[in-house]
Amino acid sequence: MSAGPNNDDWVWVANPDHYILHEIGDSTFAFSRVSGTTHMLNLVSRAMLDYLAEHPKTLTQIIAGFAAYLEVPPEECPSGVVRRLFGELDEVGLVERVEP
Amino acid sequence: MNRRALSDYPRSDVIHALRSGTLALDLGPFLTRIKLSDRRSIDFFRDMYAACPVSIDKAVLCDFSLCLRPPNKFRKYFRRQIVPDPGFQFPAVPLPLEMSPLAFEMGLNLSVALQCFRFAIFHAGVVADGDNALIIAAKSGGGKSTLTAALMEEDWRLLSDEFAILDLDAATLKAYPRPVSLKNASIDVVRGFAGSGQVSDTLHDTPKGAIAYRRPRPSDIETMQRAAKPRLILFPRFTDGAQAESREIDLADAAMQLIASSPNYQVIGERAFSGLMTMLEGMKAYEIEYGSTEDSLALVRELWKAHVP
Q: Which UniProt key words apply to this protein (chain B) (predicted)?
């Protein structure tokens, strides 16, 4: 399922039972047990995956809270970047939509 | 299983076993039943695989089965052609009969690449210094086989010219020492340092250009059950006239390139991922560029000395 047009009633989560992580240097490899594919994540994508694994969130909550999670000022983490990062994780199936 | 070196069997027994499809090649982790009917592929097999253990007992169970056959009855008699038949439907382009050694080697590659699921397979050459392995990963034409053959002259063990075969439990590489495939200009280069007697006749005008094969040495066959722990990954690039240089690359990038080169990684799934990640622990990866075989060997010596105790 792609992020595509989003509905703020939708909540998203990263389910650690559905992937395996392995770090090599500054990169994290994520093997999706759902798709059987391997993905390479940078530090920020990895942080978003961890952020979404904490508990389900709407996209609005993700955009509003991710900068604080990274402990950086909001202007260093613009909403467009957060949307794109989230969209990439959604596109490859590492985050899932769940019932609220 | 009763097995001996191919060269220990009487010629007539080998030819009969090949023609009737009862010969089993016992190489590295795979047993392959082979059926050949044309003289050229039989001569090629008897020459290049002379030191390999085989059985001519038809009761032996094999991992793979490979038959070289005409694509249809017509092509058995007119403008004779041949295709490798690994026992499953595959869109192999028929080759002229005189290219049957190429069809044979392609067939063995197909068998391993598409039918092996016990090990993760990556497209790369592998040589070993004792129990430490060097992975030579390259796209076709990048110089992988020439470098592999050159390292054999420096007493590295040949594990494989074509496949890094990863034991998923031990994170070590298995040997599958088949002839090294040489293309175009590299044929004379390898003949120059290995000697003409170590290289097969050249097949001209194949779909890949001129092709010849450097035979594995008896010592490669004798030590083929000895797995090796990979320590270094090289991505070689031969560029005519280039200055020799090496550049360390991110191991994560190297991993993604290996995954992209694997025919069975996606099928094996989680075990392949875990095995590959374990294999990569502590490894280093480099791109090397060079304009001569001497330069490539000097780069390998330097990097190996720097990273492998």
A: Kinase, Transferase
CATH code for the domain of A67 = 3.90.930
Higher pLDDT, B89 or B287: B287
Distance from the B92 Cα atom to the nearest Cα atom in chain A, whole angstroms: 28
DSSP state of A93: T
For residue B145, the SS3 value is: helix
Count up the domains in chain A and report the number: 1
In a domain, A2, yes or no: no
CB-closest option in A20, A26, A27 to B273: A20
Answer yes or no: is the ipTM higher than 0.90: no
Is B246 exposed, middle or buried, given 0-12, 13-18 or 19+ CB atoms closer than 10 A?
middle
Let me know the angle formed at the C-alpha of B98 by B140 and B108, rounded to the nearest 5 degrees: 50
Question: Which residues does B84 contact at the CB level (< 8 Å), separation at least 6?
Answer: B66, B67, B68, B90, B92, B103, B104, B106, B107, B110
Binary contact (B277, A29; C-beta < 8 A)? yes
pLDDT digits (tens, 9 = 90+) for A26-61: 899 999 999 999 999 999 999 999 999 999 999 999
Tabulate helix, strand, coil % of chain B (nearest 5).
35, 30, 35
**B283 close contact with A: CB closer than 8 A:** no
Work out whether strand B229-238 and strand B132-136 pair parallel, antiparallel, or are unpaired: parallel
User: Residue A5's pLDDT band (boundaries 50, 70, 90)?
Assistant: low
Task: Measure CB to CB from residue A40 to each of B252, B269, B270 and give the nearest one.
Answer: B252
Confidence label for A18 from pLDDT (cuts 50, 70 and 90):
very high
Distance CA A69, CA B54 (A): 63
What average pLDDT does the segment B198-209 reach?
94
- For residue B301, what are the contacts with CB-CB under 8 A and spacing of at least 6? none
Cβ distance B279 to B166 under 8 Å? yes
Tokens 């298995």, located at residue? B174
> What angle, 0 to 180 degrees and rounded to 10, lies between the N-to-C axes of helices B144-153 and B185-194?
0
